[in-house]
Specification:
- By secondary structure, this protein is α/β, with parallel strands linked by helices.
- It has a domain of 114 residues: Ribonucleoside hydrolase-like (Inosine-uridine Nucleoside N-ribohydrolase, Chain A, Alpha-Beta Complex), CATH 3.90.245.
- Helix 2 links the parallel strand 1 and strand 2.
């Protein structure tokens, strides 16, 4: 970044701009972000006119629904806090799966081995689990499944509209408050088992 240009001029940010520019006037581009919001925020910074034409689904932050407190101390926020703030104060339609909610989507090693061990993809996933730096763990949260399922299976999630505080944009953001983790796990196992080698 140089001078007042806070954008990261990546191929991804320019692709977002390009995709928005070919939309019809009343359409929105659906963007699913699983990590830092750098590319989305950069696209908005480079071309502010696209903000009303993006529907962003993001896995990140923590939200205390009882106290109405948004925390931005998780990995996805910490990797680019400027991007998070830039988008909170933008007009981009945001649907957020807080990591505090996404943590429900937990898989145990024993269940995964039992259900997928005989499948070639299951064997690969178990090898990745075993070879990971903390391969001895007996369970893992598969974070990304929560937000992906929220987009494709909206009837499995509970989403609420919340007006954020003044220091977080003071606008409506849609937060996922809960979801059916059991259905998501069962669906994941079923999809893997049903997949055949090409």
């Amino acid at each position: 970044m140089t001078g007042g240009d806070r954008a990261q001029h990546s191929a991804a940010s320019y692709e977002i701009i390009r995709q928005v520019e070919v939309l019809k006037k009343d359409e929105k581009l659906t963007v699913i972000a699983l990590g830092a919001l750098t590319n989305v925020a950069s696209a908005v910074f480079i071309q502010p006119s696209i903000t009303k034409h993006i529907k962003l689904y993001w896995l990140g932050s923590t939200y205390d629904f009882e106290k109405g407190i948004l925390l931005k101390n998780d990995f996805n926020c910490a990797m680019d806090p400027y991007a998070v703030n830039h988008l909170l104060f933008s007009e981009v339609e945001m649907h957020i799966m807080p990591v505090s909610v996404a943590s429900k989507i937990k898989f145990t090693y024993d269940e995964t081995r039992e259900k997928l061990g005989g499948h070639f993809l299951g064997a690969y996933l178990l090898k990745v689990w075993d070879d990971h730096i903390d391969g001895g763990r007996t369970s893992r949260i598969i974070w990304d499944l929560s937000i992906i399922n929220a987009v494709i299976r909206p009837n499995w999630v509970e989403e609420v509209a919340i007006t954020t505080s003044k220091d977080n944009g003071n606008r409506i953001i849609y937060y996922y408050k809960d979801f059916d983790a059991e259905k998501m796990r069962a669906d994941f196992f079923q999809k893997i088992v049903a997949y055949k080698r090409p």
